[in-house]
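EI: anyone free to look at a 277-residue chain?
SC: sure, send it
EI:
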Amino acid sequence: MPRIVTVHDLSGIGRCSLNAAISILSAMGHHCLPLSTAILSNQTGFGDYSYLDLTGEVPAYLEHWKRRNLRPDAIYTGFFGSGAQPAMIAKLLISQYPDAFVLVDPVMGDEGELYSCFDQNYVREMKRLMAHAHLITPNPTELFLLSDLPPDTDWSKLSDQNFLKIASGIASETLKQIIVTGCRSKELAQILHIDLEHQAVYRLNYPDTGIGYSGTGDIFASVLCGAVMRGMSLTDAVKLAADFISLALGNLSSENDPREGIPFEQYLWRLVPNVSE
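SC: here you go
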């Protein structure tokens, strides 16, 4: 059973971060080892929340794992509790396990803006962490922040060659694959797979509800990570993640609060290996 270290916050209310990752990765047949970066009463989209920064606990946490001979097969990072955490995770976790697959979801902005809880120093730290990744899953805002472009750049006006040039500017020795999520325009949404190894951009279209539901990026990245660690091709893994979200979105009711996220729990069985309807 693959071991996946999952570095994310834990929100009491909201189908996001560790709430999503633990459920999804476990359903997909993996051993999810959570490292909580912060504890929130509810996810930040509600506006007000209690917040416990766990930066000071990370070194001791990882030291105990080291003593117990942890050998992760993958490391998947999402929301960090402070600007000090990306460098800490790179030094104390990622560098310790050079054979682990690394997926970085650079959670730091959306809809053309950097989240209010972060600053430009955080963006710089995320760039440094990203250099250790094999795969990243930014939304357009995060992609542009990582590329030193205006975060509100209109992604829909960019050609495949534009995206390849942007991706080349942030690539590293390990980072050759970028999946851009949350590309929404009118009633259409796209996921872009920028493949620097083959100098190609693949676009996957799916219907857009017109409403932004919190945590969809976390759900997508979690399914993607789980699928890749099951040996699926990146193309098939992207489709599985997109189809899973589309399935859950297609069965929403008017009572669903977008801030609480997508009620994906009833569809987890779709991700269980060797289970069919």
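EI: DSSP finds eight helices and eleven strands in the chain.
SC: 👍
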